[in-house]
Design brief:
The protein is mainly α. The protein is 76% helix and 0% strand.
């Protein structure tokens, strides 16, 4: 594969943005899990696992909002 210099820079920037997005997602999962999921454990989760946990968190937050119970 051959790329021009500007294409390489754009590709690297895209990879950096994707890496930051994954880290952000994992850190948010760790926060919502209140320490029951460590950062290292979060980094070992597959995309599918993170997606499922995210759906569970979203569902629980919606239930909390509807019930009026405190989240914290």
């Amino acid at each position: 594969m051959t790329l021009k210099a500007d294409e390489i820079v754009a590709w690297i920037e895209q990879l950096e943005n994707e890496s930051k997005a994954v880290k952000d997602e994992i850190l948010r999962l760790c926060w919502y899990m209140r320490g029951s999921l460590s950062y290292d454990e979060g980094m070992q989760l597959s995309y599918t696992d993170r997606e499922i946990i995210g759906k569970i968190i979203k569902s629980n937050m919606e239930t909390t909002e509807k019930s009026g119970l405190p989240f914290f």
